[in-house]
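Issue 218. Parser rejects a valid record. Input:
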Amino acid sequence: MTDYKTQLTELEAGKRKLIEVSKDDFYAFRTAWLDYPRRKSIVGEAHRGGNITYHYDRTAGQK
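Output the parser choked on:
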């Protein structure tokens, strides 16, 4: 199973640029994302086929 909590922390720290989530793993990612304190800064882009790419946007959580 993918450790999305670690990936979210790495994304915020700049150790990773993207998190790619398949449609099959979406609910596992969502569970970790809902527990993440700065989740409003994690921005997703949906792709055809149901896959989603997430990146960290420092300005997104400030709105």
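Fixed in the parser; the record now loads. Helices lie at 4-13, 26-35.
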